[in-house]
Amino acid sequence: MRVEIDSHSGFCFGVVRAISRAEEALQEQGEVFSLGDIVHNRVEVQRLERLGMHTVTHDQMPELGGRSLFIRAHGEPPSTYRLAEELGIELIDATCPVVAKLQRRVVEAHEKMRQVGGQVVILGKRGHAEVIGLTGQVEAPTLVVETEEDLDQIDFTRPIYFLSQTTQSISLFQHLCDRMRSRATDPAQVFAHDTICRQVSNRESHLEEFAGRFDVIIFVCGRKSSNGRVLFEVCRRANPRSYNVEEASELRPEWFEGAESVGICGATSTPKWLMQEVADAVAGQKP
Predict the structure, then answer these.
(1) Which residue has the higher pLDDT, 62 or 170?
(2) Fewer CB within 10 A of the end CB, N or C, for the chain?
(3) Active site residue: 23, 130, 148, 246, which one?
């Protein structure tokens, strides 16, 4: 079989930056604590743990006084920074610049809506680290929507400021925006700002073309990756013979029956070395 790795897949700028800073800190200090998984990829997290990184929760922060705590690319709400200062924790802040800009936009949106009695709505995955950081920027409530059904929680008689988690689907954002305007008492009072990261969103059209060129697609990403779920669906729509794995051990021989070509691709949280491992394993398959 011909096996090809998508050159556009793999870590985005924000994740590359975070991993690099983590490796530098580990080399200097030998031990660093990460507030949550540094990246939503179990295999990459395990690699960094072998270098001395420990993943901790917010509840464990009181035990870390005097130590270094890593803020991953997803960002954190201001309350985390205040608590770290109170506890004497040194922060290594690797918040993605795109996420940091969106955090500031959330604060600005709330101020604008406060003046007109409006509401701020974010397209995002509930419980996702980035979304928690975004909704925690201000004390006022921020509505989080994942699907069209979630729009029922919005008061369409009031102004709406619509934003998005950086790794969401552009088409879904536009669809929900259109639905909001169709339901709003005054469509002109729906202010939508597409805050989706273009380094991420531009992969959708590329992956659609890439997936269509092969008999089989193997999409490599962590189970926790929100971006991975979006991009895998792009592949599956373009090629029904698309399969999602976390690592090479999950490959199944029957997937490759009759296949002459296999494309390997992944999420913005998937390291290149892991896609190469999967590609090597696929090359050894006997269709």
Answers:
(1) 62
(2) C
(3) 130
